[in-house]
Amino acid sequence: MEEYELPLFPLNTVLFPATLLPLRIFEPRYVDLIGRCMRDNSGFGVVALMSGAETGRAGQTHRTGTIARIIDFDQGADGLLNIVIRGDERFHVRDTTTQADNLLLGKIVELDNVAQLPIPEEFSVLLELLDQITSKIDIAQSQGPAPVTASQLAYKLAQYLPFPVPAKVAMLGIGDPRELLQQLSDQVSQLRHGNQ
Fold this sequence. Notes:
Radius of gyration: 17 Å
Shape: globular
Distance between the termini: 45 Å
CATH architecture of the largest domain: Roll
Number of helices: 5
Largest sheet: 5 strands, mixed, barrel
Strand content: 25-35%
Structural class: alpha+beta
Order of helices and strands: EEHEEEEHHHH
Strand order of the largest sheet: 1-3-4-5-6
């Protein structure tokens, strides 16, 4: 795969492919970035923070991230830019540099797409769990049609569940759809045992 440079947006969360994430943009470096992306119809990379804060100088980030595409935007009454991004391709960060305005740039290589595997029967309990969660939240946030592949189910469910960020990053890095669902299933079991 070919390496190229991509502006990075560090967050305290993980953006998964085909999932949506609303963001409020106020720092000048990100306002400029969003303006460029909208003008050029380009994306930017979302990476999860390992340390540091979302504002100010970028902290340490995980090496696996997701390319984000802007699908909606408006300016709020408070003057801040509200955008909705959708996760696209996964990538690995090989190296980073920081611009004078503290915008983080990554030299990245895209990861292969996860194979399209229909959801295996033994993981149907995860589909039921997703149905339970989406029935309790605003329909606009349930993010479209029900998943039909293993990766769609894993990513959609992982975004709603309170797994630790490193566990979500590890899931993002998995390229095998069955392994992805198994990892999700293990995390759900840990959550359930932790709540008993």
